[in-house]
Amino acid sequence: MKRLRLWLGMIGLVTTSYLIFDPAERFALAWATFTEFGPYALAALALVNLARALTRSVAAYIGPGILATIAAIVALRPAVSPAQVTNIAFAVVFVGAVALATSAVGGERPWTRVMWSGRVAALNALRGQLRAVAVLGEIRVDMLGSQPHGQPVLTAVAFGGRVVVDVPREWRVLARPPAGPLLLVRESGRRELPDTDGHDLEVRLIGFGGALELRRS
Fold first, then answer.
1. How many other CB atoms are there within 10 angstroms of residue 105's CB atom?
2. Facing residues of 173 across strands?
3. Nearest in space to 52 (alpha carbons), one of 143, 110, 115
4. Helices and strands counted in the chain (H then E)
């Protein structure tokens, strides 16, 4: 949470410093620059993410596909009115506020990737509330070297992205039904031991247009 606040503060400082003197002209210049070079940057980012998340799973194409779609829209329709830009800005601010509110739950350890694909290693001792957030990207949480304590709960938040969790083959995982539209939960690999009462890890999926994959190794 401290890191998130630090990044938000830095972005706010840079933005306000840029717009402080002549905000209308500077905003118009920034938007013109984005419509000219932005589609190529988004397309390149989509290709890099797809290469980093190269897999047979169709869910890996969700984030890069949305990025490529945005790039195509901006490239084909660069003449967007200021009113449309304002509406988009309000939507982005609203989504950011929601993401910030959901990530501010006390006692949680968040792992977050925005428009990027990356891997993180979980702590050796898993306990309490955990959170993995993927926005237009992918995050892979490696729990192969972890030990659960007191039935931890992992909340996977996916907005046009994919959350992949690698768990030991013998773990008992309780995957709750996804909360939200256009969400997918997949599990690969089989347990070496028969199912018994209780579970080692509970996983919940919330968001929109995302996927959660549990891989047993």
1. 12
2. 201
3. 115
4. 4, 12
Asked if 148 and 201 count as a contact pair (C-beta separation under 8 A), the reply is yes
Determine the straight-line distance between the first and last CA of the chain, rounded to whole angstroms: 31
Task: Please give the torsion angle defined by the CA atoms of residues 68, 91, 113 and 139, in that order, rounded to the nearest 10 degrees.
Answer: -70
User: How many degrees, rounded to 5, is the angle at CA 60 between CA 55 and CA 63?
Assistant: 150
Q: Tokens 């397309």 correspond to what residue? A: 43
What is the sign, positive or negative, of the torsion defined by CA atoms of 17, 112, 66, 63? positive
CB 163 within 8 A of CB 211: yes
pTM tops 0.90:
no
d(CA 160, CA 214): 18
**Burial class of 109 by CB neighbour count within 10 A (0 to 12, 13 to 18, 19+):** middle
**If DSSP codes are grouped into helix, strand and coil, which group holds residue 34?**
helix
d(CA 131, CA 175): 14
pLDDT tens, position by position, 176-201: 888 888 888 888 887 665 555 678 99
8 Å CB contact between 181 and 211: no
And the tokens for 149?
A: 């304590």
Eight-state DSSP code of residue 86: H
Per-residue model confidence as pLDDT tens digits over 92-149: 655 555 555 555 444 445 788 887 888 899 989 998 899 998 888 889 999 999 999 9
Strands 201-208 and 173-175: parallel
DSSP code of 60?
G
Strand partners, 9: none
